[in-house]
Specification:
- The chain is α+β, with helices and mostly antiparallel strands.
- The protein has a domain of about 150 residues.
- It is built from 18 helices and 10 strands.
- Strand 7 and strand 8 form a beta hairpin.
- Helix 10 crosses helix 14.
- The protein starts with 6 loop residues before the first helix and ends with a helix.
- InterPro entries: NTP_transf_5.
Length: about 375
């Protein structure tokens, strides 16, 4: 389990672990009163790890928000209030979208933040960049037409407008990322843009076999979240999807370059999801589905669970970790798995968490990152087209 001599680092660790029966009020209170606690660094790191709303939730729940001076507490308060307004709009739009999908017999399941924001967080606690929805590949066109009818444009926010993606951009996104380019709509009388992303593969596979495609289709036979009939994945497949998403972001050169490789909020998602659903998880079924996804699937899940427990302590059943553990675990410090050559970090995971400049290690290897350079050049080309 993580322990840092740096007081500011440690208070963040204590805050993110505070959930359900894990009450860390005394530890948090003691650390916030410590003379070595650094509020500006605290805010910087909370922002980098997308924890601003979560910090407000925890400190407010324990009635210790007053321990932060108004100069600093107001930042968390305003962020949380603004994020709550944004998330309420997102939830409202999600209900409208899925109602249309239900009317048109489109099989779907909402993913990640769209579900987690309401299931394991207060409405303003978690930043939600977009609404991720899993759709059967055969129904993507039908779903896209519905979004267009609801006022969404397949494009991105560009200054104060929405720039529609070119045909080349749409094709590039679909073939390379197994999602459609995002759909965007500006919400009336606000500066809030709602983004919707339709995915047809939740396992980030370059080559989807018929068996894997069938697993995705079976995942769409989901349970309703509430009376609004918002569908989600079954518990084991959602857990698997969260693991794959973290693994991909942690090892991708593109994610590292943009500081998305280690964002603690993603591990908090996993931590809270597991604690909330632990009694419902069928671990045998979970392992069975990992095996369907090949040895790389086991590797991805072990990587994610290993680092989850490094942060939060023992959570996963011992027999499950033993089943997943490979003989050689040196890959835990590898990155660039999307490149022709795999690289290794100079620092361990716990050292990298609060190392804001870790992306500069990538720059040192930039000449060898052929696929990343090709990707960046293609993105710049698309951006020039939009100007």
């Amino acid at each position: 389990m993580l322990f840092y001599q740096n007081v500011t680092f440690q208070v963040i660790v204590e805050i993110i672990k505070d959930y359900e029966h894990n009450n860390n009020k005394k530890n948090i209170e003691k650390l916030l009163k410590d003379s070595l606690f650094n509020p500006p660094l605290f805010i910087k790191l909370c922002s980098e790890h997308k924890l601003m709303g979560l910090v407000y939730e925890v400190l407010n729940r324990h009635d210790i928000f007053y321990l932060l001076h108004d100069k600093w507490s107001d930042i968390f308060l305003h962020y949380s209030n603004g994020n709550q307004k944004k998330n309420e709009i997102y939830q409202s739009e999600l209900k409208i979208i899925v109602a249309k999908f239900n009317e048109n017999n489109i099989k779907y399941a909402t993913l990640k933040g769209a579900i987690l924001c309401s299931e394991v967080y207060n409405i303003g606690s978690r930043f939600c960049k977009d609404i991720d929805i899993l759709i059967d590949e055969d129904q993507l066109t039908k779903a896209s037409v519905i979004l267009n009818e609801l006022g969404y444009v397949q494009g991105e926010k560009w200054s104060n407008n929405i720039r529609e993606y070119s045909k080349q951009e749409k094709l590039f996104k679909r073939l390379g990322h197994h999602v459609l380019s995002s759909f965007t709509k500006k919400f009336e009388n606000t500066e809030i843009y709602v983004n919707v992303e339709l995915a047809f593969d939740i396992f980030n596979n370059k080559n989807s076999s018929p068996v894997k495609k069938q697993l995705v289709r079976e995942s769409l036979n989901s349970s309703e979240v509430n009376k609004d009939m918002i569908n989600k994945l079954n518990t084991e497949i959602m857990l698997l999807q969260l693991c794959f998403s973290i693994y991909k972001d942690s090892t991708s050169v593109h994610s590292i370059r943009h500081g998305k490789d280690i964002e603690l909020i993603k591990y908090v998602d996993l931590y809270r999801f597991i604690l909330k659903n632990f009694s419902q998880i069928n671990w045998e079924y979970f392992i069975f589905n990992i095996n369907i996804l090949s040895q790389d699937g086991k590797k991805a899940v072990f990587y994610t669970f290993y680092h989850l427990e490094l942060i939060f302590g023992d959570i996963i059943p011992v027999e499950i970790m033993s089943c997943l553990r490979p003989e050689d675990i040196t890959f835990l410090n590898d990155y660039g798995l999307d490149e022709e050559k795999v690289f290794r970090w100079e620092k361990s995971f716990d050292e990298r968490i609060f190392w804001s400049d870790r992306k500069f290690q990538i720059i040192n290897n930039i000449d060898e990152l052929k696929k990343f350079k090709e990707y960046e050049e293609r993105v710049k080309k698309f951006q020039n087209i939009g100007e």
